[in-house]
């Protein structure tokens, strides 16, 4: 994925947002008309959500491991 400054004056792709886009996010093979264009505020909000998701995924993975360990302990204890 690429993240670049937009070179054309266009509205932010977040429908409710009235700002002009400052950045565009796209795969290398995406046509310019299909790129996600966001203002600085919306890009920051997306970044924050991604960090939260990543943190939650780590938390979830940690819980899964703990749950597996508990299950393994219970299994070996029952034998
Ligand atoms: Zn925006």
Plain-language structure description:
The chain is α+β, with helices and mostly antiparallel strands. The protein has one domain. The chain contains 1 helix and 3 strands. Strands 1-2-3 form a 3-stranded antiparallel β-sheet. The site of zinc ion has 8 residues, from helix 1.
Report the principal-axis shape: elongated
Count up the helices.
1
Relative strand content? 5-15%
Percent of residues in helices comes to 40-55%
Q: How many distinct domains?
A: 1
Notable characteristics:
single chain, alpha+beta, 3 strands, 1 helix, binds zinc ion, 79 residues, three-stranded antiparallel β-sheet
Write the layout of secondary structure elements.
Elements lengths: L1 E4 L17 E4 L9 E3 L1 H39 L1
Antiparallel strand pairs: 1-2, 2-3
Quick structural overview:
By secondary structure, this protein is an alpha+beta fold. About 10% of the residues are buried.
């Amino acid at each position: 994925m690429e993240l670049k400054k937009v070179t054309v004056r266009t509205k932010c792709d977040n429908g409710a947002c009235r700002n002009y886009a400052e950045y565009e996010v796209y795969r290398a093979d995406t046509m310019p008309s299909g790129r996600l264009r966001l203002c600085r505020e919306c890009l920051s909000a997306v970044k924050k959500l991604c960090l939260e998701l990543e943190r939650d995924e780590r938390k979830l993975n940690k819980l899964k491991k703990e749950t597996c360990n508990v299950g393994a302990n219970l299994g070996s204890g029952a034998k």
